[in-house]
Design a protein that fits this description.
alpha/beta, globular, Rossmann fold, 193 residues
Length: 193
């Protein structure tokens, strides 16, 4: 199974669950993460965890231009919007391509461990891509049954760096509710109503 991973904190519990029944290879493909030093920090944490738990880790390209071109038209939609849906799709598409290249039987993602991500959207995208690529998608909500709490415990145990935004520059700018960017997002959303 190829597991799309976004960071070590999200991967910990998901890997533990999936590795009980599957031979798991992690795939870090997250060109949404900005700035580059944030990307490197998250990747370095995941590399350390892969060494500790002894699982293979593949790294995809840092295709920030491709990602930006894909989501830029939706940049003012805010968190949990079609912008996030396109971001998920972009990363999952690359995961399915990598799974086909590696001749993997299934794909999963650690994204659903986050209480900030829409699991229905993630699983729907995975099922669409499953049909397109002919590779099984393991639909799940890993935050259930205290999954998120367990991921936090694993993070503490390993001393993982825990970020305070999803990774994209838009999310980072939206953290400050008083910023000019946040005001623009609010104005855009108001114009849609």
């Amino acid at each position: 199974m190829l597991l799309h991973t976004c960071c070590a904190p999200c991967t910990g519990h998901v890997y533990e669950v999936l590795s009980e029944e599957h031979c798991v290879t992690a795939f870090f493909f997250n060109p949404n993460i900005s700035p580059r030093n944030e990307y490197n920090q998250r990747l370095d944490e995941l590399k350390k965890y892969a060494l500790v738990r002894n699982f293979p880790l593949e790294e995809g390209p840092y295709d920030i231009r491709g990602w930006t071109a894909r989501v830029r038209p939706m940049r003012f939609h805010g968190e949990r919007s079609i912008r996030c849906r396109e971001c998920f799709r972009f990363r999952l598409e690359e995961t399915f391509k990598k799974a086909a290249q590696l001749r993997m039987e299934a794909v999963a993602t650690s994204l659903s461990i986050s209480p900030h991500k829409d699991v229905a959207v993630i699983n729907a995208l995975g099922r669409e891509l499953q049909e397109e690529y002919g590779i099984a998608f393991h639909a799940a909500d890993f935050k259930k049954q205290d999954g998120y709490k367990k991921s936090v415990e694993i993070s503490r145990l390993h001393g993982f760096y825990r970020q305070d935004y999803c990774g994209c520059i838009y999310s980072k700018m939206e953290r400050d509710r008083e910023s000019a960017w946040s005001a623009r997002v609010r104005a855009f959303k108001s114009s849609l109503q």
